[in-house]
Design goal:
heterodimer, A: 111 residues, mainly beta, 6-stranded mixed β-sheet, 5-stranded antiparallel β-sheet, 11 strands, 54% strand, globular, B: 114 residues, 7-stranded mixed β-sheet, 4-stranded antiparallel β-sheet, 0% helix
Amino acid sequence: DQQVKQNSPSLSVQEGRISILNCDYTNSMFDYFLWYKKYPAEGPTFLISISSIKDKNEDGRFTVFLNKSAKHLSLHIVPSQPGDSAVYFCAALGGSEKLVFGKGTKLTVNP
Amino acid sequence: DADVTQTPRNRITKTGKRIMLECSQTKGHDRMYWYRQDPGLGLRLIYYSFDVKDINKGEISDGYSVSRQAQAKFSLSLESAIPNQTALYFCATSEGGQGGETQYFGPGTRLLVL
């Protein structure tokens, strides 16, 4: 029973274009969502988060959108850069105060 | 210096051996976590601790035990390692509470059980 789903294992985009990473969740008790970025041989690094009281949060090139009715969130990276190539994890937090992670999407940004 | 450190970074061991992975943090956070990452499976929670006297099982605690020696230290033990415990192990910390949801991860320990 996977509560947080990242249905695309990989995504490839051209440098300068937009990257859109998607995440779906099933548990309506989740009220806080985070995106992490992970390079090989390193631990996940926090990227951006959003509370369920908002539908958008922006930080530089990174924007997270939340659609509560669809139980869907997405991470937009504009413009994409080769250094953005990494695995991106979506995570959700609810009443249990335990993060539940998706399986990750590997983003490759081609020069 | 890194806020969350893990030792060792890499370890090879044999089936049946006892092994301990250690995590230290200088962030002053009360909450600490142990996860494992397997290819295609994301991160799964093994154990977590919300303060020194609090230990809780996560999603996949069988075959593991933990010790919270101090606010800054949280160790993970494999009492009798088996090959399917070969994985990447990550420690994380968080402040907790509203506004303290973000977890900060260590660099990971790559464990191979032969």
